[in-house]
Every structure is written in C-alpha cells, then in structure tokens.
Amino acid sequence: MASTQKRTFSLSTAQSKYIDKLVKSGGYASGSEVVRAGLRALKERDAAMEQWLREEVVPVLDELDADPTQVITEGQLAETLLGKRNKHKRKAAKSKRKAAKR
C-alpha cells in the first residue's frame, strides 16, 4: 500500500462485531483490511451502476425522448397489470374447480 491516512469512524455495535468476527475467522488480518475490502466492493458496485446507467438506461431515455408516443401512462400500466392479475385469478379458480371435480 503506497500511503495511508488515519481516519476515525463510528460504527454500530453490530457492525463492529461483524468486523471482529471477520478478523477472528482469519479472513482478514485487521479491521482496516475489512473496511478496505468493503470500500473496494462499494467502488465496484458504483462503477457497475454507472456502466448500467450509461449503457442501458441513457439509450432508453434517449429513445423515449425521440419518440414520446412509446411512453404509457401510470393509469395504462395499472390497467394492464390489473387485467393480467384478474386473468391469472380466473385461471387459478378454474384449475381449482377442475381439481375439485376429480
């Protein structure tokens, strides 16, 4: 490690115990190692989120901006979902009736 800088943080009892447990298990040499590993994981997650936004979300938003007719309203979505739920309920009830007749 090139250089280090001391910092002081407050943790909950549960977080502190978790760090101690990880160190005691031998997976990490110190609490600092645990925190560094957590920060690396957080950095990787943030990078993945940035990539997802850039590669998947932005193109969809650009497409919707170019043709707003593709957007459905909240009411249309609710109507579609309710229709699907009701269809599923009817199908389940029909299956139950068939099973009861057997």
Describe the protein.
- With 102 residues, this protein is mostly helical.
- It has two domains: 11-71, no CATH class; 72-102.
- It is 75% helix and 0% strand.
- The chain contains three helices and no strands.
- It has helices spanning 13-24, 31-66, 74-101.
- The longest helix has 36 residues, at 31-66.
- The radius of gyration is 26 Å and the shape is flat.
- Mean pLDDT across every amino acid position: 93
* Radius of gyration based on Cα positions: 26 Å
**SSE string, helix = H, strand = E?**
HHH
Largest sheet composition: none
Strand fraction band? under 5%
Count up the helices: 3
Number of domains: 2
Number of DSSP strands?
0
Unreliable spans are none
Distance between the termini: 72 Å
Overview features:
102 residues; mainly alpha; 75% helix; 3 helices; flat
Topology:
Elements: H1 13-24, H2 31-66, H3 74-101
Short description:
The chain has 102 residues and is mostly helical. Helix content is 75%, strand content 0%.
